[in-house]
Design a protein that fits this description.
The chain has ten helices and no strands. It has one domain: Tetracycline Repressor, domain 2, CATH 1.10.357. Helix 6 crosses helix 9. The longest helix has 25 residues. It has 216 residues and is an all-alpha fold. The protein is elongated. The N and C termini lie far apart (45 Å).
Length: 216
């Protein structure tokens, strides 16, 4: 029964039309871009398919040819966010971590993640939606597991000798502090944003340096 409910929920979030032709792909991307913009401007509660369609200058019926409801559009935004974060972490994984200093690693890892946050126009309200909407919660859990698992593996490549359980704990800690503070960084301006980013990198460095030569 649980599997059947999950399948129905998944189907309700699936796009109506797979964007095969270039025109359809462009329209799908327009819908996502406009939704991200409106999500930032009006918030989740006031975001409606009527508002999205109006901004696109199309009918709601036309919008429904691509997505069945508002949650489906947000799910697509969340899936895009997850894809971007996966690519960012894979970029860091491809670096020669075994020969890299911790300071360099922190700068590259945090810097690459920041690019993902900067690219997502409505990251704060989207993150909130992924957290509170049951239909989108799956993506939030996948995002967390992705970062925790990959960071734990990268910590091992840097030379940390902790147990798998401890590496996972550090990966989770890394996730929590980078996610919360990168949200702040992208919503600040100028020198204030730069100082917060510098403080984040310093915090991550100080967290990890004590484990570099300590197997306890």
């Amino acid at each position: 029964m649980a599997t059947e409910r999950q399948e129905k929920r998944k189907n309700s979030l699936a796009p109506r039309r797979r964007p095969v032709q270039e025109r359809a792909r462009q329209r799908t991307q327009q819908i996502l871009d406009i939704t991200a913009k409106l999500l930032e401007e009006v918030g989740f509660d006031d975001l409606t398919t009527i508002l999205i369609a109006k901004e696109l200058n199309i009918s709601v019926g036309s919008l429904y040819h691509y997505f069945p409801n508002k949650h489906a559009i947000l799910y697509a935004l969340g899936a895009s966010w997850l894809e971007e974060m996966t690519m960012a972490l894979e970029d860091v994984e491809r670096l020669n971590l075994e020969a890299m200093s911790l300071d360099t690693f922190v700068n590259k890892a945090v810097g690459r993640m920041l690019q993902v946050y900067q690219k997502q126009y409505s990251i704060l309200p989207l993150a909130q939606a992924l957290w509170v909407i049951p239909e989108l919660r799956e993506l939030d859990l996948q995002h967390d597991e992705l970062i925790i698992t990959k960071m734990a593996a990268m910590f091992a490549r840097l030379g940390m000798k902790q147990t798998h359980q401890e590496m996972t704990r550090l990966g989770n800690f890394y996730l929590e502090i980078t996610h919360s503070l990168l949200l702040v960084v992208v919503n600040q301006k100028g020198q204030r944003s730069k100082r917060t980013l510098d403080d984040l990198k310093r915090l991550v460095f100080e967290l990890l340096i004590k484990y570099m030569d300590d197997g306890e």
